[in-house]
């Protein structure tokens, strides 16, 4: 067990590093769905504005 202490120190260092890193998804399912829907609404508004600009300012022609 000559390397036992070294292994323990490496484990502790690795656990500390992993705990300090940000998790990839900190939102719950409902929070994530709401954020996704909000982003989609913003993108739909941007797309409508782009379509209106492209067609000459009148979006009454579509749908």
UniProtKB/TrEMBL annotation:
Entries under InterPro entries matching the protein: SERF-like_N (IPR007513)
Region span, Disordered: 1-32, 44-63
Biased composition (Basic and acidic residues): 1-15
Composition bias, Low complexity: 16-25, 45-63
Residue ranges occupied by any Small EDRK-rich factor-like N-terminal domain in the UniProt entry: 1-37
Name of protein: Small EDRK-rich factor-like N-terminal domain-containing protein
Species of origin: Viridothelium virens (Speckled blister lichen)
Classification of source organism: Eukaryota, Fungi, Dikarya, Ascomycota, Pezizomycotina
